[in-house]
């Protein structure tokens, strides 16, 4: 990575932090209430180092092999690793052993395996339940109607800590439609809190819709391109 590329990441990160701050202000959110998760999938280790040097410590990865390589290369750095990719039940061990957070739980079977496989010396795995708010058949995530029962069961698992909900809605460009999807997640979260679950996380909003997500109560936005620029076609 050239010094110019490193400088560009520092610059993008500053711009993104300003965008988040502006959105908080515009939508009556407390300053600093929205956390940035830098999505580093398909970006090289040096890109993560460049963001780390600017004080970014939470990184999201989608692929297990790539994530393992990066964690090994960055061992000893103060990084909080978030798994945000598709979860298959035969791949849960790598998540349970290597990550601090997972955002993409949508079935009890997966949650049980993660809890069983979480090393006893580690802190509980911090979890979000992925909800399919736009009802697209192709999208992962539990149906909103089934989310409360599943959330209750996950909250009972010993080595997981259910922190909240996550969604990856249908990509739409107009602000009000973006808000509609995020509002569904916020409403569902409020219902679960009223049911007695202690949830504090709404993982929603990406590079193209972070303002709408912040307007609807996001506490964690997952930004890839806005931080690192376009993703390389192939994994590094
Ligand atoms: C890739 C990805 C992101 C980041 O997307 P950008 O549009 O690059 O900000 C966020 N969340 C998930 C689940 C992703 O897979």
UniProtKB/TrEMBL annotation:
User: According to the UniProt entry, which residues carry N6-(pyridoxal phosphate)lysine?
Assistant: 41
Where is the chain membrane-spanning?
none
Q: Does the keyword Transmembrane apply?
A: no
Q: Which UniProt keywords apply?
A: Pyridoxal phosphate
The UniProt record lists the Alanine racemase N-terminal domain at 32-232
PANTHER family from the xrefs?
PROLINE SYNTHETASE CO-TRANSCRIBED BACTERIAL HOMOLOG PROTEIN, PYRIDOXAL PHOSPHATE HOMEOSTASIS PROTEIN
Query: In which family does this protein belong, per the annotation?
Result: Belongs to the pyridoxal phosphate-binding protein YggS/PROSC family.
User: Which NCBIfam families does this chain map to?
Assistant: YggS family pyridoxal phosphate-dependent enzyme
Task: Name the job this protein performs.
Answer: Pyridoxal 5'-phosphate (PLP)-binding protein, which is involved in PLP homeostasis.
What protein name does the entry list? Pyridoxal phosphate homeostasis protein
The opening ranks of the lineage are: Bacteria, Pseudomonadati, Pseudomonadota, Gammaproteobacteria, Chromatiales
């Amino acid at each position: 990575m050239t010094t110019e590329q490193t400088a560009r990441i520092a610059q993008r990160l500053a711009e993104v932090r300003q965008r988040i701050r502006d959105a908080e202000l515009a939508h009556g959110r407390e300053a600093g209430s929205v956390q940035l998760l830098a999505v580093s999938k398909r970006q090289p280790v040096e890109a993560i180092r460049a963001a780390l040097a600017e004080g970014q410590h939470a990184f999201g990865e989608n692929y297990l092999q790539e994530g393992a390589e990066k964690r090994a290369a960055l061992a000893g750095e103060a990084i909080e690793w978030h798994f945000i990719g598709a979860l298959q039940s035969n791949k849960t061990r790598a998540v349970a052993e290597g990550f601090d957070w997972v955002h993409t739980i949508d079935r009890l079977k997966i949650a049980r395996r993660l809890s069983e496989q979480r090393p006893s010396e580690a802190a509980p795995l911090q979890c979000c339940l992925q909800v399919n708010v736009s009802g697209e058949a192709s999208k992962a995530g539990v149906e909103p109607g089934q989310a409360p029962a599943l959330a209750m069961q996950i909250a009972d698992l010993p080595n997981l800590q259910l922190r909240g909900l996550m969604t990856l809605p249908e990509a739409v460009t107009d602000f009000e439609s973006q808000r509609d999807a995020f509002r569904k997640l916020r409403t569902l979260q409020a219902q679960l809190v009223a049911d007695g679950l202690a949830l504090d996380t709404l993982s929603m909003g990406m590079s193209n819709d972070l303002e709408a997500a912040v307007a609807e109560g996001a506490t964690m936005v997952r930004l890839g391109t806005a931080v690192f620029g376009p993703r390389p076609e192939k994994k590094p």
